[in-house]
């Protein structure tokens, strides 16, 4: 009988290896896109992808040595915090879409305040989840300490859900209020696909965060925590989907269009300097 110091199951080596490879490839693609398109606002997204890669690599170590405390701590912290960094980049995408479409007057929150408000909330959620996970992973069988860590993580997850929910509402209100203005924009102002990708990735992160809240509310002896399949179905797959979607419709294109706008003036009212990408 294997001694399960940190897991109530034998971590799957094939699953960990597959997702380590997939997140590594996705991260490299995002690094390439970001450098090529000079979309430096996506650095947090890349770090999130690296967190996911290292987190699943740590699970490979756990599959070989289930009693490795370091591997357990690394995978717990990084897999919890990676999506928070994805969220930070998504917040900044909306601000750039609003500026690109000259839609500031329709926004519920000004673009400059979107970054300050939501990234600030994201930092709060990041710190809370990081502290909670650190306490949880260092509990060493102390049930009260583990519970305290779980409670802090849940608080961080609820903060993330609250800010993310408000963010999605701000995005939807902007599109609703600016619908006539947005329909009048020329074809080369490609706002639509980026806004819909924003909705899709936000939904995936929200779903993942809800499952994580339920997991920690149920406790480390709960059904979700003690069954590895939930980690892969409701975390790994969803977060990989976020990275894949953002690779196919890369937000760096917004940075290119904004640079074109700065170079040629207001592209909404001129045909000069239309971006060549479609």
Automatic annotation (TrEMBL):
Subcellular location: Membrane
Residues annotated as signal peptide: none
Record's keyword annotation contains Ubl conjugation: no
Assigned keywords, A-Z: Membrane, Transmembrane, Transmembrane helix
Membrane topology: Multi-pass membrane protein
GO CC annotations, alphabetized: membrane
InterPro entries listed in its UniProt record: RTA1
Coiled coil: none
Membrane-spanning segments: 12-32, 39-58, 78-101, 113-136, 152-174, 195-217, 229-249
Protein known as: RTA1 like protein
Species assigned in the record: Lophiostoma macrostomum CBS 122681
């Amino acid at each position: 009988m294997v001694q399960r110091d940190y897991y109530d199951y034998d971590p799957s080596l094939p699953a960990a290896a597959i997702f380590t490879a997939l997140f590594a490839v996705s991260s490299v693609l995002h690094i390439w896109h970001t450098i090529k398109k000079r979309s430096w606002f996506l650095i947090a997204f890349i770090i999130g992808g690296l967190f996911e890669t290292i987190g699943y690599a740590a699970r490979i170590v756990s599959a070989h040595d289930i009693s490795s405390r370091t591997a357990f701590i690394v995978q717990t912290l990084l897999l919890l915090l990676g999506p928070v960094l994805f969220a930070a980049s998504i917040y900044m995408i909306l601000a750039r879409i609003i500026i690109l479409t000259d839609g500031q007057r329709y926004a519920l929150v000004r673009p400059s305040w979107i970054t300050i408000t939501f990234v600030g909330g994201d930092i709060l959620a990041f710190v809370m989840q990081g502290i909670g996970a650190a306490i949880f992973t260092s509990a060493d069988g102390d049930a009260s300490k583990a519970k305290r860590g779980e409670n802090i993580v849940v608080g961080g997850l609820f903060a993330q859900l609250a800010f993310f929910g408000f963010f999605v509402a701000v995005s939807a209100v902007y599109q609703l209020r600016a619908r006539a203005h947005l329909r009048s924009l020329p074809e080369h102002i490609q706002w639509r696909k980026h806004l819909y990708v924003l909705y899709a990735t936000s939904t995936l992160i929200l779903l993942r965060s809800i499952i994580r809240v339920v997991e920690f509310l149920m406790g480390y002896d709960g059904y979700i925590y003690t069954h590895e399949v939930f980690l892969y179905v409701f975390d790994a797959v969803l977060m990989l989907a976020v990275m894949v979607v953002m690779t196919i419709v890369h937000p760096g294109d917004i940075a290119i269009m904004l640079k074109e706008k700065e170079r040629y003036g207001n592209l909404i009212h001129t045909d000069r300097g239309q971006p060549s990408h479609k």
